[in-house]
Design brief:
- The chain is 46% helix and 16% strand.
- By secondary structure, the protein is of the alpha/beta class.
- Strand 12 and strand 13 form a beta hairpin.
- The longest helix is centred in the last third of the chain and has 31 residues.
- It binds 5'-O-[(L-methionyl)-sulphamoyl]adenosine (MSP).
Length: 527
């Protein structure tokens, strides 16, 4: 069986999860669920990043030890992922001793390869980004303070002994690797950014230890230093797959097929991480997808801007799930449909309500309710077998199963879109099918057919197309809105559990046979 190992970034456990994290996890979850549906053996990993100065400072502000502080925040992430029905298989905490053992092993491998040396680091440091900025890149405020070119936050001068990783040594290898693997960095325009901004000017060696703090994994053989948070966090992708603890499991899952991360940390994932792996004698990941940011509305006048705690515009996903009675699907649908995953997008309560009412309540919910009502009223709840299809029927059917058809490269169109994270386009295509079914009701007028005993067979055909059409749609939406898909499946009276049906049958027209529908609650009560 083909396998698929997919990861998300591991968020800093220094504040509650927000809608940006929810976007990333939902996107990765859609891919993970879709790949499972397509027959892959999937391993899906997320976790939390719990070391470093940022964690120390946040814990101190909260008046807690870092350990206690992390232990309070981490369940908020894991809990939110459960509410959002994120189907992760593993959750790595960087404070887990098994992770630390893997990081130690990795450090030793890189050192043995001659890529770690002791030097001295001086420079302008950004606590919130956990990075040094070059003197030449730091901005200077009118009062002389140095500010981060990325966040505008005040930088602090740091001078300390530090171990360095010979990143510069991998500039050519990385350049060749990126050139030889054009799909490695996605979307493609981000690959150009990485090459032009970092590889062409040339990478500098990077400081990978700190003596100023003690919250981290100790440097092997020099306990005065702790390992710099990125040289610890990135390694979660292998420790979580068995590196340093389970040779067989590691051989099964590495290299990862997909790292899903935000555009702001693409450099660490596409340039630093592969260089670290090359140095340790391991394969780089197969692909890294850099998604865009979710911005939130400040006011109707100001438009949209970046979320941040200081601006007080951070959106809590938990509230957006609670608003729909604990159903995560409206939020999942909104994030995947409204935002082009590779680009920045925006959240506003109005946009979410509009999507919910138009696409979910009026289009999909309504179609299911109307269809099942007719099957109950005219056929005692039985989905009778269809008669011969006319040209109109054939056109509707082929439009519905179009996403499941083969694309020129041999995979389904569906898989192709999933592999490229074209979630909003795929959903738009699926909804074209949903709308066609609504149009088909208007056009075929089953309520009129029902008045004419001589047209009983035609009525059965029309209702079959509606029910089987909804059955196909349930499969297509399952990775995106699994709870809704399961409800449609059940209401259509399908006995076989969704997960047990192989994709070959799932994707074929004609699956429904002699089902007895069970109309349930309205999927999406209007708001
Ligand atoms: N701890 C590091 C990642 C280490 S991975 C080995 C980190 N944490 S973070 O909490 O700042 O961000 C976690 C993820 O959320 C990143 O992929 C980041 O890009 C993403 N997002 C943070 N804010 C976001 C938005 N407003 N919108 C979308 N994603 C955003 O970086």
């Amino acid at each position: 069986m083909n396998r698929y190992y997919i990861t998300t970034a591991i968020p800093y456990a220094n504040s509650a999860p927000h809608i940006g994290h929810a976007l990333e996890l939902t996107g990765a979850d859609v891919a993970a669920r879709a790949k499972r549906m397509l027959g892959y053996d999937v391993y899906f990993q997320t976790g939390t990043d719990e070391h470093g100065q940022k964690m120390l400072e946040s814990a101190a502000k909260a008046g807690r030890s870092v350990r206690e502080f992390a232990d309070e925040i981490v369940p908020r992430f894991a809990g939110l992922w459960r509410e959002l029905e994120i189907s992760f298989d593993n959750f790595v905490r960087t404070t887990d001793p098994r992770h630390a053992a893997g990081v130690t092993k990795f450090w030793n491998a890189v050192r043995e390869n001659g890529d770690i040396y002791l030097g001295r680091y001086e420079g302008w440091y950004s606590v919130s980004e956990e990075v040094f900025h070059l003197e030449s890149q730091a901005q200077t405020a009118p009062d002389g303070r140095k500010l981060s070119p990325e966040t505008g936050e005040e930088l602090v001068w740091k001078s300390e002994n530090s171990y360095f990783f010979r990143w510069s040594r991998y500039n050519d290898a990385l350049t060749n690797f990126v050139r030889a693997n054009p799909a490695f960095i996605a979307p493609a325009f981000r690959a150009n950014e990485m090459v032009n901004t970092f590889l062409k000017p040339g990478l500098q060696d990077i400081s990978i230890s700190r003596t100023s703090i003690q919250w981290g994994i100790p440097v092997p053989g020099d306990a005065l230093h702790v390992i710099y948070v990125w040289f610890d966090a990135l390694i979660n992708y292998i420790t979580g797959a068995g590196y340093g603890s389970d040779v067989e499991r590691f051989a099964q899952w590495w290299p990862a097929d997909m790292h899903v991360v935000g555009k702001d940390i693409l450099k660490f994932h596409t340039l630093l991480w592969p260089a670290m792996l090359m140095s340790a004698g391991l394969d780089p990941p197969r692909r890294v997808f850099g998604h865009g940011f979710v911005n939130t509305r400040v006011s109707a006048v100001d438009g949209f801007e970046k979320m941040s705690k200081s601006k007080g515009n951070v959106v809590d996903p938990h509230a957006l799930i609670a608003r729909f009675g604990g159903n995560p699907d409206p939020l999942r649908y909104f994030l995947m449909r409204e935002i082009d995953f590779g680009q920045d997008g925006a959240y506003s309560p109005e946009a979410m309500t509009a999507r919910y009412n138009a696409d979910l309540a009026n289009t999909l919910g309504n179609l299911l309710a109307r269809t099942l009502t007719m099957v109950e009223k005219y056929q005692d709840g039985i989905v009778a077998p269809p008669g011969a299809y006319c040209a109109r029927d054939e056109a509707v059917i082929s439009a519905l199963i179009a996403p499941f058809q083969k694309s020129p490269n041999g995979n389904s169109v569906y898989e192709e879109m999933i592999d490229n994270f074209r979630f909003n386009t795929l959903l738009a295509d699926i909804w074209t099918g949903v709308s066609r079914l609504n149009g088909y009701i208007t056009e075929q007028q089953p309520f009129k057919l029902a008045n004419d005993a001589a047209r009983k067979d035609r009525l059965a055909t029309v209702l079959y197309i509606l029910c089987e059409g909804l059955r196909v749609i349930a499969a297509q939406i399952a990775p995106f809105i699994p709870r809704t898909a399961a409800a449609i499946w059940t209401q259509l009276g399908v006995a076989e559990p969704f997960d047990s049906v192989p994709f070959e049958r799932l994707s074929q027209w004609g699956f429904l046979r002699d089902a007895r529908v069970q109309r349930g609650e309205n999927l999406f009560p209007k708001i």
